[in-house]
Every structure is written in structure tokens, then in C-alpha cells.
Amino acid sequence: MAASKGLVVSCLFLVMLFAQATSQGLKVGFYSKTCPQVEGIVKKVVFEAMKKAPTLGAPLLRMFFHDCFVRGCDGSILLDKSNNQGEKSAVPNLSLRGFGIIDDSKAALEKVCPGIVSCSDVLALVARDAMVALEGPSWEVETGRRDGRVSNINEVNLPSPFDNITKLITDFRLNGLNEKDLVILSGGHTIGIGHCPLVTNRLYNFTGRGDSDPSLDSEYAAKLRQKCKPTDTTTALEMDPGSFKTFDVSYFTLVAKRRGLFQSDAALLDNSKTKAYVLQQLRTHGSMFFHDFGVSMVKMGRSGVLTGRAGEIRKMCRVPN
User: Fold this and answer.
1) What is the pLDDT of residue 20?
2) Residue 39's closest CA among 124, 136, 98?
3) Where is the Plant heme peroxidase family profile domain (predicted)?
4) Which of 75, 231, 268, 301 has its CA 20 to 30 A from that of 279?
5) How far apart are CA 49 and CA 44, in angstroms?
6) Are 266 and 213 in contact (CB under 8 A)?
7) Catalytic residue among 66, 189, 195, 285
8) Under the phi-then-psi rule, with left for phi > 0, alpha for psi from -120 to 50, and beta for the rest, what region is 240?
9) What is the pTM of this model?
10) How distant, in Å, are the alpha carbons of 50, 102, 129, 186 from that of 55?
């Protein structure tokens, strides 16, 4: 047992070294000389789109998250595959929206700075600007990523709404992220919606005895059962009831009251470190949440990136060159 634990620690250490080494080519202002207008161009596209459809904020944030957790932040989530065998076709990615915003941003950049800005950097900038458009946090985005050429549905193994805290911590560590990052990035659930199939297991027959998840507040469970019948596959649920369109700190209040929608939300109370971070957000009224969210997003954006001469700069984000 000790030997196997040592092997796991060694593997995690090597993964963190890899994430650190591959992120060294990133920096804020990477395009300052080759395409100085890059951030203004992307922001204009995002703000115009978000004005028409503010609910795109959550899917765009998830898109960046889902990209970085598979093969690193290399834009592989954006690639179309004629045989539907790309990452886009994996079940967790079927609900992603906003790919057109990436396309429009890239097209606008190609007119001004052809062949300069990578699609993976466009996605990183779009995720930030979508949060700013919702009056949420802002942060300086490191750029300099290059685009991957591979997108494989079989490599999609993302953290799940059904995961326990041990699985969540392991998955985040493999991407160079710690327990605090897990809590802070989970705070992104303050915006967006989920659907009944992601919570019905918590509402009906949780342990095989016709019961609900004991970690879910009973009053909240009763309200959810009114909306979600056992066979309901379509009804949408607000992740943060009452303010699901607003990026705020109320998510942590809900989690502390055992009203997080997913098992993965409730799981944050099952570890001393993650629980402490949740309660810290309550004590400080989330005064550091926006700042911490930006820090964690920058860390996530360094995961497994391609820099230097690795990868390519795609001309169009949906297809490799």
C-alpha cells in the first residue's frame, strides 16, 4: 500500500512539473507586438453576443474548463470531426453553446492579424470577457498557447456532477490545481443551468431504498421533486436559484446550507480543506472571490499548453490546418 501511495505521489509530482514546464511560454501581452488589438477585438465580439444572449456566459466558461481538462488548453474542444468522434460529441460537451462566438472572434482577428492568434488563446480570452460581460470577475489572461491537432471523444474524462470529493481532488491535481482552486472554480456554478437527469439520482432511490440524498436539504429536495419527475430528461434547473444569470457569491451560501444542486457541490463539505474554503467565503462575504476566481482561472489556463513550435496556429478554429 505504501509503495502504491508513493507511486501516486510521484505521478502527481511529475504531472505538476509538466504543467509548470509547458506553461513557461505563456505571458500577459504575448501579442503586444504582433497583434496589439487582439483583446479589444475579442471583447467587442463577446460583448455584442452577450448583449443578445447573456445565458451564453456559463457555456462559454464551461467550454474553456472542458478544453483544459482534456489534452490541456489546446483548443481541441473546438475541432469538428466528420465521424462525430471528437471531444464535442462526448456527452458532457453536448450542452456546450457559443462556438459561433469563437468563430466570429477568430474571423475578426484573421482580418487584422492573419495567422497570428491561436484558437486556444481566443477561447481563453472569450471565457474571461464573458464573465466581465456579466459584471463578474476580470483577470489578466496569459497568452501564447498554440493549437492542438487532435480531438478524441475517448479521451474525454471530465470531473462529473456525480463525483465524490476524492475523485474531484484527484482530477484537479492532475491538472495542477489544488483544493482551493476546486472550490473557487466550482463557484462558477453561480451562473447557468443544469437539467433533471443530473439530479434525479439525489431525489429518488439514492441508496436503493426509495430515499433522497441525505446531504441534500430536505426542503430543497422536495422543491426539486416538484420540478423533476423520475423520467424527466428535459426540464432546466437554475444552478443558483434566483441569481443564475448573475456572477455572485450566493453559490457558497447555498452549498453551506446543503442546497448545492449537484453531488459534486455537496461534496465540497466532505473534506476539511474544501469545507474551510467554502466557509471562508461566507465569513468574508466573498470579498476575495472575484480575485481568487481570476487566479484559479489563470492556473487552469496553464494546464498542458502547447507553446513555442509545438502545435499550430489554426486558420479556422473548427479544423486543423
Assistant:
1) 45
2) 124
3) 25-321
4) 301
5) 9
6) yes
7) 66
8) beta
9) 0.91
10) 8, 16, 14, 18
Single-letter code of the amino acid located at 299 = K
Percent of the chain with pLDDT over 90: 87
How many alpha carbons fall within 13 Å on the CB side of residue 306? 21
Parallel, antiparallel or unpaired: strands 27-28 and 236-238: unpaired
Q: Which residues contact 89 (CB under 8 A, 6 or more apart)?
A: 81, 153
Closest C-alpha among 78, 75, 67 to residue 158: 67
Q: What is the DSSP letter of 3?
A: H
- CA distances to 4, 132, 252, 284 from 128, rounded to whole Å, are 39, 6, 21, 24
Measure Cα distances from 209 to 79, 205, 265 in Å.
44, 5, 23
Q: What is the pLDDT of residue 9?
A: 46
List all residues 6 or more positions away from 3 whose beta carbon is below 8 Å from its beta carbon: none
Q: How far apart are CA 24 and CA 309, in angstroms?
A: 13
Q: Rounded to 5 degrees, what are φ and ψ at 193?
A: -130, 155
Cell numbers representing residue 89 in the block: 460529441
Other Cβ atoms closer than 10 A to 270: 13
Taking 60 as the threshold, does the pLDDT of residue 297 lie above it?
yes
User: Could you tell me which of 304, 45, 108, 138 has the C-alpha nearest to residue 117?
Assistant: 108
Assigned C-alpha cell, 189:
456554478
> How confident is residue 207, by pLDDT bands cut at 50, 70 and 90?
confident
Structure confidence at residue 8 (pLDDT): 45
Question: Helix or strand or coil: residue 140?
Answer: coil
